[in-house]
Design goal:
Elements: H1 3-7, H2 24-31, H3 35-57, H4 61-77, H5 89-104, H6 128-144, H7 148-158, H8 164-171, H9 175-192, H10 194-200
Helix pairs in contact: 2-3, 3-4, 3-5, 4-5, 5-8, 7-9, 8-9
């Protein structure tokens, strides 16, 4: 398997990918209802929240509605939010997003392409950029095919830099269960991407 593909499937140190948190002063003002601080708060977190939702609920206009609902719920609960030791605001927001995804799971999910539909090497596009793009597309499709709980654990760990304990908090489960889900997700991704792996060797 190519190094680029392995780098996106094998475990990494969450600290190397974790995004920065909103500064305490902005958080405090937002909790007091300051409109400018609330806007900064939303802008700071909207991109990772939207990315997580789009990969959990499928791409489409409904994702924007879900993201708005996340921040609406956060805004209502923000005055009572306590930033405990080792607890990040992003973990709290992902918890809200996860619960929304659970609620939405009762509705049919938009159909996904299969990873097998990603074209293999083309003689007309042999360059490295094309290969990287194809690998990224195949990986995204393979992640989309993961069972919901495995997909959430993988995304929160590999894309958003959450620790095992934080993922357990977000998804309301144990750290042991999170570790199992991550192990199974990575194993399943490797199996799904074997064709591309063999071709790139």
């Amino acid at each position: 398997m190519t190094t680029a593909l392995m780098d996106r499937i094998e475990p990494h140190s969450p600290a190397s990918r974790a995004g920065s948190e909103v500064d305490p002063a902005t958080l405090a003002r937002a909790q007091q209802g300051d409109a400018t601080a609330v806007e900064r708060f939303v802008r700071h977190y909207e991109r990772p929240v939207f990315a997580f939702l789009s990969r959990m609920a499928g791409r489409g206009p409904h994702v924007e509605d879900l993201a708005q609902e996340v921040f609406l719920r956060a805004y209502r609960a923000l005055p009572n939010f306590e930033r405990r030791e080792n607890t990040r605001v992003s973990t709290w927001l992902f918890s809200i997003a996860w619960r929304l995804c659970i609620d939405r799971s009762r509705k049919p999910r938009p159909p996904l392409l299969s990873v097998e539909s990603v074209p293999l090497r083309s003689a007309a596009c042999p360059d490295q950029d094309h290969r990287r793009s194809r690998i990224a597309s195949a990986l995204e499709l393979a992640v989309g095919e993961l069972p919901r709980e495995q997909r959430a654990a993988f995304l929160l760990a590999e894309c958003h830099g959450l620790t095992t304990a934080e993922i357990a908090q977000v998804t309301d489960t144990t750290r042991a269960t999170v570790k199992t889900r991550l192990f199974r997700a990575r194993a399943r991704l490797k199996r799904s991407l074997r064709a591309i792996w063999e071709e790139e060797r």
